[in-house]
Design brief:
Blueprint: H1 2-6, H2 16-23, H3 28-44, H4 51-57, H5 76-82, H6 86-90, H7 93-98, H8 100-110
Helix pairs in contact: 3-8
Protein name: Endonuclease-reverse transcriptase
Organism: Elysia marginata
Keywords: Endonuclease, Hydrolase, Nuclease
Length: 111
């Protein structure tokens, strides 16, 4: 779509980064990752026993998942980048926000 906006063709051999700089359109995947990161920090800082926190921390009773390739859970991306202690790290709001930018880019590369 951005190539069309600029009147470019694939044969012009212009990288996506250059096109993104010219159009000033933000990457939707990066925006979604940032929003997810912010929401994860918010959920981790909840003090009461709300359903959002309970659902995030919920583990099935038998502890097993079905056979085959496992479906990615909401928190799997966060655990992959920050480890299992991400909820403790997210308690410090300023530190969580500072660590977001680099980790979101790392997250995008691993997806």
């Amino acid at each position: 779509m951005e190539r069309k906006m600029l009147g470019l063709k694939l044969t012009d051999k212009i990288s996506c980064k250059e096109i993104r700089n010219k159009t000033q359109v933000s990457d939707i995947a990066q925006y979604i990752a940032k929003q997810k990161w912010k929401w994860a920090g918010h959920v981790a800082r909840l003090q009461d026993n709300r359903w959002t926190l309970r659902v995030t921390e919920w583990q099935p009773r038998n502890g097993k998942r079905s056979r085959g390739r496992q479906a990615r859970r909401w928190r799997d991306d966060i655990v992959r980048t920050r480890g299992n202690t991400w909820t403790r790290e997210a308690k410090d709001k300023e530190e969580w926000r500072r660590g977001a930018e680099g980790l979101i880019l790392q997250w995008m590369d691993g997806a």
